[in-house]
Design brief:
Elements: E1 9-11, H1 17-30, E2 34-36, H2 44-53, E3 62-67, H3 77-88, E4 93-98, H4 109-121, E5 125-131, H5 135-145, E6 150-156, H6 164-172, E7 177-180, H7 192-201, H8 205-215, E8 219-220, H9 227-234, H10 243-250
Helix pairs in contact: 1-2, 2-3, 4-5, 7-8
Length: 269
């Protein structure tokens, strides 16, 4: 399962209109192939336009979208995904995630996981997975569809929020993890520990943070609107941190969660 998700991709959260079109086109021209979006981002149509105009064959792309909480009900999920496919100009996405678990369990987890599995059975998505699932919710998802069906759990992971309990549990179940906000909205690049490691390697602090995540086996999906940053971030794949450097970054964990939307976020581990 893990081999089917590229380790490095482009995130598009908060990018809309011409900004997201330019970001996607630049990323694809630089060699990115995974594009990560979501229904709530309001940019699926622009991403569909950018990928269509990019000259990159659809078979070479890996497109991820996420089902919003309003569309989790069994009678809504598949219809909403079909809307997403139309916007993205594709007959199938590569990965569809439950963006957030249903707030307060309004829609039962087995119901939306079954609907997601049915979307896969219908060929609307090649892989399925979850996002922002805690240990408890991940366990329930495994009970609903089986660990082998969950291609990834996309969660906030960065040096200031290392989410070790959840990481250990997912690994124990053989479930791949995708790190989002790996740079903690840029906070990590200001960190003296990260900066010192970057200096030692002649690298950027962003490259160090991304390499730190990649070395742990996480996929990363950093976003940028600047071509030079998109290009620079890619080089994180060639950067190898020493065990000592990894250990130093491990000490930065302070449980600082940045994605915690009121009324939507689950009870975190």
């Amino acid at each position: 399962m893990t081999q089917t998700i590229p380790a490095f991709g482009l995130g598009t959260f908060r990018l809309t209109g011409q900004t997201v079109i330019d970001s996607v086109k630049n990323a694809l021209s630089l060699g990115y192939r995974l594009i990560d979006t979501a229904q709530i981002y309001g940019n699926e149509a622009e991403i569909g336009q950018a990928t269509a105009q990019s000259g990159v064959a659809r078979k070479d792309l890996f497109i991820t979208t996420k089902i919003w909480t309003d569309n989790l009900a069994g009678d809504k999920l598949i219809a909403s995904l079909k809307d997403s496919l139309a916007k993205l100009r594709t007959e199938q996405v590569d990965l569809t995630l439950i963006h957030w678990p249903s707030p307060n369990g309004a829609v039962p987890l087995p119901e939306y996981m079954a609907a997601l599995a049915e979307a896969k059975a219908q060929g609307l998505t090649r892989l399925i997975g979850v996002s922002n699932f805690t240990v408890s919710l991940l366990g329930q998802a495994i009970a609903a569809v089986g660990a082998g069906e969950i291609a990834t759990n996309q969660i906030e992971i960065h040096p200031y929020l290392q989410n070790r309990k959840l990481v250990d549990y997912a690994r124990g179940q053989g479930i791949h993890l995708t790190s989002y906000m790996t740079l903690a909205y840029g906070k990590v690049v200001q960190d003296p520990v990260v900066q010192a490691i970057a200096q030692a390697h002649g690298a950027t602090p962003a490259q160090v943070a991304l390499a730190w995540a990649l070395q742990q086996g996480f996929a990363v999906i950093p976003s940028s609107t600047r071509r030079e940053n998109l290009a620079s971030n890619l080089h994180a794949q060639q950067l190898r941190l020493t065990d000592d450097e990894m250990a130093k970054i491990a000490t930065l964990d302070r449980g600082e969660r940045l994605a915690n939307p009121e009324g939507i976020a689950p009870a975190w581990d």
